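Annex B. Sample input.
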Amino acid sequence: MPDPIIPRRPRRPRPRLHHIVAYLRQVRLSHGIEPPVLAKRIGVSRELLSRWECGVCHPCLTNLYAWANALELDLIPCPLTKPSTNQPSLNEESPILHSYRALRSNMPGIARR
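Annex B, continued. Sample output.
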């Protein structure tokens, strides 16, 4: 009797990080940091860093934060869902909203230290 077929568990969708990864690569190049040096700062292999930069695979969030930290950048987490209706909304004059828009205009998800 053949073994029963076990259905594969569906893969979790990966966030689309290509714009953040491209920016991190651009910062590395502008600072003149070689991939082996950056990979050592992050704590990963040079090959894995190359795969991230080429888009073959994506870094997990821990490694993404380590990568940004190695380049002296801060990642700003942004919610992926809309806030619930029972939470107070930010009005147009809010200083928090103004600061957030100023950061977003420079580069989505990343701000200089």
